[in-house]
Amino acid sequence: MKIRIAIPFAGLALTACGQSEAGRPNVIYVFPDQYRNSSLGFWSDPEFAAEVGWKGDPVATPNLDRFAREATVLTEAVSNFPVSSPHRGMLLSGMYPERNGVVLNCMSERPESSLREDAECIGDVFSAAGYDCAYIGKLHADFPTKNNPQRPGTYVSD
Hints:
The chain is of the alpha+beta class. 22% of the residues lie in helices and 9% in strands.
């Protein structure tokens, strides 16, 4: 049985899924922030319910439930800046908001809140170690600009 660790701020999961061709673990980091932790169906499963002091909501999340059974699920964590963009900036860079530049939620009206271009992030570390890296979803950690080649995936529509 896999050891399951704890993280309940919106169901953060970090997992090693199998091995790559190079023999290193594949790493998938999931950061869902649009729902509360108890709104994941697997918390009603006795194996997971025993790890937390609350009851899961009566919801059906079959794909996330399957993913949780194959992953390491974290049930406890604390953010010293529980606002979306600054928190993401800290997770990515390992630096406090006043150091990494993401001091407010990022949006086109706030160019002053953006991840520093020289910030070494977890993706940079994995890439330097030979991993192929991708970010899927909203980065929400830097000032959105049209097709910024330094920050792929950032785009503001007209």
